[in-house]
Amino acid sequence: MKLNIVPARTGAQWVRQGIQTFWRHPMALSALFFLCMAAMSLISLFPLVGPALALALLPTASLVMMVGAAETLQGRMPTPALLLVAFRTGRQRMHAMALLGAFYAVGFLLVMGVSALIDGGQFAQVYLGTTPMTPELAQEADFQAAMWFSLLLYLPLSLLFWHAPGLVHWHNIPPAKALFFSFIACWRNLTAFAVFFLSWMGVFIATGLVLALVTALLSALVGDIAAGLMIGAAMMLAAMFFSSVVFTFRDCFSAPDGHDELEEDGGVTYTPHDTGPTP
Prior knowledge:
Keywords: Membrane, Transmembrane, Transmembrane helix. The chain crosses the membrane at residues 26-46, 52-73, 94-118, 145-164, 203-222, 229-249. This is DUF2189 domain-containing protein. InterPro entries: BPSS1780-like. By secondary structure, the chain is mainly α. The protein has one domain. It contains twelve helices and no strands. Helix 2 runs antiparallel to helix 3 (50-56), helix 2 (26-44) packs across helix 12 (225-252) and helix 4 packs across helix 9. The longest helix is centred in the C-terminal third of the chain and has 33 residues, at 190-222. The model is unreliable at 263-279 (pLDDT under 50).
């Protein structure tokens, strides 16, 4: 496995490729994302351990969307059967994904625990959906400090887990090494990832403005249906984002020997026994 260093402009290409891939099978990828979120929401309802179990499923949900986008690239329809992708690649990989999930849940809960030391747990309760957000709460200094400190701690956690599911699935890397290689890959390609996230931020803001305008116009005609349409559009936008994650993985690591799971016509491709991305 070889780590590739890509130029900053590649970050914008990842966004474009993710959007283009999504529109090949928009309903299938949206449904796949919705099913992932629905499964996590249902599991979070279990008493005591539900929220932690839901957090532990996030790396698997990320992998499901990565594989769904890879299937789309190969001209195949991503189906709900991909929800079980982490359980169909052998016991070793299944255990590795379960361990990744446990690591993520512990890391996330630690971040929330540290934030609780600042504001008494108010931000954590709002973030986890147990307490509603109010204008008064948002203006409290302790709440804002907890929010920004949580974001600061969550960034390295995100870098650790960004590529880890793909490394376990496609390269059969042990969980601890996958976390390390993920962090290094993100750090070495930090400029590309900065462009990637800034580009997506621009897409989110522009789309949000358009959706707000359309919702305001439609609300007078169709009432509450307009709000439902906006929620559906937001879900599709989130599915687009997760469809682009596989491109960040594909371009940061050389292909596993003898595999071409992420092959695409044009652009940067994976080919068997390749030594890196080919322009």
